[in-house]
Structures are given as structure tokens and as C-alpha cells.
Write a structure and sequence with these properties.
single chain; alpha+beta; seven-stranded mixed β-sheet; 13 helices; disordered C terminus
């Protein structure tokens, strides 16, 4: 697409859910490359019995803005997960097309692999010594390493790329932190390929050499020689290597799970904020998102019930602070006001309490504007300011329900960057059909947010969910809402070096049941206590002594 240089491609991936294309992620940008091999992977739950359509949109990135709308669109391709999984080698090749244009504008190659559950993370430090200089007599190579893992069909999939080390034949590359699942799909003995290239700005990187080593090899061996097969074949015994990669460090650590923190008493608290701006429409009119419907819930109430019931399971006391923003209260526009209208008592009991104060607030709040997130974000920050400690583990979830465009994007980004160092996650639920492109930017799955002072967010804390696209599919709604919260909590705990406390012990009194006669005694049963559930108290359940096992109940694999 670029006139005087090669394209800088990036791929945005979508999944069709309830007849709407929902973005699930974006690859990295590979500069000046017409044959990019992306290292970014996407984990998608696979259902054999469903047709799960994917769409891949390829762009030539021309600027530093997070939106792709102002970049050149190259083309798109669609397929199903089943199509990839059922193809030879689990690889498909699809031509890229534009609408109303039958000419192919390139080819997209998509691969799938079943994910192995793994809670390990590897920390690897690579050092190069005597890397061959392929840059000529008057300069030195700028070496970088591409790590790829092997597939069942013998092909290689890139999983990580170091930055180039400028003019350095003995480079020390930045320490690599990568999940073992991404590195080798949980198999410590799976072959990994390390390829060294001399970086070129035009994308025509020069191959220097390659080596193979598994994760276990990296931990056991001190180094590996990188070999250029062509030079070895040409020079024979006169060729030894094109340099050495030293494994200065290779540590593997198992990280605790989300459930282990809950079992150890980590308390999750939910805060709710509701949009009362005039763009939602007059509550007296049926087309309003705030319509006072005498026969059923409006769209906000549907979202409150659906999302609130999912998140409330993780709140121990079921008491929720509830705020509104963008409404006029007693003649003054407020961007953060308690829906109880009592600053000393902002909490309500349960999801029913949220719906109750919301309904009553519609009678006392005049919809106004503009849509501003900053004060609501600051309220969430104040709740999260009480940092978790090893003894007292707390984490806050701020749920924001809104109808669309915000008018303080810069201030909101500043608040999110500030909050990224606190025990806080933000779930933004988009109600209605407005333009939610700003929310995708705040989600920051591919491009970390940078505040007005140039500071980058410490970790991803925002999850955006367009409610209408998943409202009629409870399982998908729960997945979208909860998709990132566990990892966000875990990332915070890792940064703070906070481990789960020992599981809390709960004693359940089981009273004996008296039966009038022997003939009324039930069949022998076994009693089980479900201890891994996220609810506030364990569930007691009975099961026959010899239960039948149903293979169909097994959880579906993820790709």
C-alpha cells in the first residue's frame, strides 16, 4: 500500500457472535514486510457442535494512533474454527479481498492448536557471543532472535522476537518473560528453534544462523551454537558456527490460580456506575435506553441483571456502592453521584437493590451530559487505594454501563494508567448501538495506554463488552465479562509478590435425618462438598454411590 516502501501489516481478528462481528484481538505490527509471520496468538473456546466464524482484517499501518480506521485497509478473509481444525495440518490459506473486488490482495495463513492448561511462566535471558558479522567491513550486525515452537507437522510457529541489538556482535538481549503455554504449549521437551537475523530497516533481514533447544535444554545447557546450513555445506569441516547463544538465565515458575486466591480469602468488591446522559433518550419514550417500561425491564435493567448477577457471585458481602454520572441532580450536573442520594450510605443490597435505586433515580435525575468517565474512575481509585497485602487481600471491580462516546478521553486514559498500579479492574458494558470505538481503545488489548505525561499503563485493567451482541447468550456473556478479570487480578498479585493465603476452613453442620422405619431408609449415598466454587459458601450435594460417567460432559477444548 505504501508508495515508496513496503507495507507495515497488522491483523485484527473478529468472531461472529449473535450476528455481530466482535473484535477478539489484534496482532503486533510488523514493519516493512510483505510476508509477515505474527507472534501474537488468540485463545478461542471451541465448540464442535457450533459453526464459529472468524474474520481477519489486514491493514497497512501508517501512523501511531491506536485506531485502525485511519490506516490503509488491505483486505479481509473469513473462515470457521472447524474449517481450520479439520484441515490437513490444522492450517488454512485464504485469499484477502476487498468488498466488490474479486482480485486477491494477498494470502492469509491461519493455524490452530489445542491449548494445554498451564500456569507456568518462563524467564529467559539470552546472550550472544561472537555473532557473525554479515553487515560488511564498515559496520556491525544488528542481531535479533526469533523463537519458534515446533508443530506436529514439522513446521515452526514464531512465539517471540527480541528487539535488535544495534551494532553489537556480543549482544545481551532484554530478559524474556513468556508463559510456558505460549512458548511450548506446556511441553518442556518440545523442540524450540532460535533463529538469529541481522535487522534491516526495509524488512529484508539477513539470516545469520539457527539452533534448536527445548525448554529443558535451556535449563540444562549453558549455550548452543548457531549454524548456517548453507555455509556449513559450502565450507564443510572448515565451518564451526556463526556464533553462540548463551542461556544466562532460564527459570520456570508456577503461578497460583485465581481460585486459589479466592479460597485463601481474597475479597472482591463490586462498584456500579450508570450513565445518565441525555444521549440515552427521554425515559418517557419507548426508544429510550432508560425507558420506564411498565411491562418489563429496559436495556439498562437487562444489562444490570445479566452482568450484575455474574459479577455479584464474587462479592462476599453482596453490598454494592452504586453511582450515576452525567445527570442533573437538584439542578446541577454531576459526573459522580450516589444513586441512594446519601453520600454517607452509598451501598445497596444485591442486584435487586441496584435495580431498585436505579428505577427510583429516574424519577429524580434529569438526563444531561456530557459523558465523562474521569470522576467515576477516580471514585473507583479511591476504593482501590487500600492496597492488598499478604494478610488482607482485596480487589475491586468497577462496572460502568454506558451508551457510547465519552468526552474526556485524555483524562480517562490518565485515570486508567493511574489505576493500573492498584488492585482494580474496570468492566465497561456498552448499552445500545452507539459508536464504541473509544471503548475498544480503552480496552488496550494490543496497544498499552499512555497518559498525558508519557507514562505507560503497568498492566491491562479494562474489559469492554458490547451488551447487545451477547445479551441472548448467557454463557458467552459470562465469558466476555469475566474473560480478563482473573488474569488482571493475578498480574497485580504477581507485581506485589502476594501469594494466596492457605484455604479458609469451613465447617458445615450436617444434622442427622430421622426416618420412621427401616423401609423408608434411602439408598446409600456419598456426600461431596464443592470447595472450588466462587460462591460465598460451599454447596452440599448428594450423589449415588456408583454414578454413571457421561463423556459428553467433558469441557470443550480451547484453540
Amino acid at each position: 500500500m505504501d508508495t515508496f516502501s513496503k507495507s507495515d501489516p497488522c491483523v485484527e481478528v473478529y468472531q461472529l457472535i449473535n450476528n455481530a462481528w466482535i473484535p477478539i484481538g489484534r496482532t503486533e505490527i510488523i514493519w516493512n514486510n510483505l510476508n509477515p509471520d505474527f507472534t501474537k496468538t488468540f485463545i478461542v473456546e471451541y465448540f464442535f457442535e457450533e459453526i464459529q466464524q472468524l474474520m481477519f482484517k489486514v491493514y497497512d499501518v501508517d501512523n501511531d494512533t491506536p485506531s485502525l480506521a485511519d490506516d490503509d485497509f488491505i483486505g479481509q478473509a473469513t473462515c470457521t474454527i472447524g474449517e481450520i481444525a479439520g484441515s490437513r495440518g490444522q492450517v488454512v490459506m485464504k485469499p484477502l479481498h476487498r468488498a466488490n473486488d474479486s482480485n486477491a490482495r494477498g494470502t492469509l495463513i491461519a493455524r490452530v492448536e489445542e491449548v494445554t492448561s498451564c500456569r507456568e511462566q518462563a524467564t529467559i535471558s539470552l546472550k550472544g557471543t561472537h555473532i557473525e558479522n554479515v553487515a560488511g567491513f564498515f559496520s556491525k550486525s544488528d542481531p535479533f532472535v526469533v523463537i519458534s515452537r515446533s508443530r506436529e507437522d514439522g513446521s515452526w510457529v514464531p512465539v517471540y522476537q527480541t528487539p535488535p541489538s544495534r551494532s553489537n556482535l556480543n549482544p545481551v538481549w532484554p530478559t524474556i518473560q513468556i508463559t510456558v503455554q505460549k512458548l511450548c504449549n506446556g511441553d518442556h521437551n518440545r523442540p524450540l528453534q532460535l533463529e538469529v537475523f541481522d535487522h534491516k530497516r526495509n524488512g529484508d533481514h539477513v539470516f545469520i544462523g539457527r539452533a534448536q533447544a527445548s525448554l529443558n535444554d535451556m535449563r540444562a545447557l549453558g549455550c548452543v551454537k548457531i549454524i548456517n546450513p548453507e555455509k556449513k555445506a559450502k565450507k564443510g569441516k572448515g565451518y564451526d558456527n556463526s556464533g553462540v547463544i548463551n542461556f544466562a538465565r532460564c527459570d520456570v515458575v508456577r503461578y497460583p490460580t485465581f481460585v486459589e486466591y479466592l479460597q485463601g480469602g481474597c475479597e472482591l468488591s463490586l462498584i456500579v456506575a450508570i450513565d445518565f446522559t441525555s444521549s440515552n433518550g427521554d425515559p418517557n419514550l419507548p426508544n429510550s435506553l432508560h425507558f420506564r417500561n411498565p411491562y418489563g425491564p429496559n436495556e439498562y435493567e437487562l444489562a444490570i441483571n445479566a452482568v450484575g448477577n455474574i459479577l455479584s457471585d464474587y462479592d462476599s458481602d453482596k453490598k454494592f456502592p452504586v453511582f450515576g454520572f452525567g445527570g442533573k441532580v437538584q439542578g446541577t450536573v454531576s459526573h459522580c453521584f450516589p444513586l441512594t442520594f446519601d453520600p454517607r450510605n452509598v451501598e445497596v443490597d444485591g442486584v435487586a437493590g441496584i435495580c431498585g435505586v436505579y428505577r427510583r433515580a429516574l424519577d429524580h435525575v434529569l438526563l444531561s451530559g456530557p459523558t465523562v468517565f474521569g470522576p467515576i474512575m477516580q471514585a473507583g481509585i479511591q476504593y482501590a487505594m487500600q492496597h492488598s497485602t499478604q494478610q488482607s487481600q482485596k480487589y475491586t471491580i468497577l462496572l460502568i454501563l454506558t451508551d457510547g462516546v465519552i468526552h474526556d478521553m485524555s483524562a480517562t486514559i490518565d485515570s486508567i494508567v493511574q489505576a493500573s498500579g492498584l488492585p482494580l479492574s474496570v468492566v465497561i458494558v456498552g448499552v445500545g448501538e452507539a459508536d464504541f470505538s473509544q471503548m475498544v481503545v480503552l480496552d488496550a488489548d494490543t496497544t498499552p495506554l499512555v497518559d498525558s505525561h508519557g507514562r505507560q499503563m503497568y498492566r491491562d485493567i479494562v474489559q469492554f463488552v458490547p451488551f447487545r451482541s451477547v445479551a441472548n447468550h448467557p454463557a458467552r456473556l459470562a465469558k466476555e465479562v469475566l474473560a480478563e478479570i482473573p488474569e488482571q487480578l493475578l498480574s497485580y498479585m504477581r507485581v506485589r509478590n502476594i501469594l494466596p493465603n492457605p484455604p479458609l476452613q469451613t465447617t458445615l453442620p450436617i444434622e442427622p435425618v430421622l426416618y420412621p422405619s427401616v423401609g423408608q431408609m434411602p439408598q446409600p449415598t456419598q456426600q461431596f462438598i464443592v470447595v472450588g466454587a466462587p460462591s460465598a459458601s460451599p454447596t452440599l450435594m448428594s450423589q449415588p454411590t456408583a454414578p454413571s460417567l457421561d463423556p459428553s460432559s467433558a469441557a470443550p477444548p480451547s484453540y
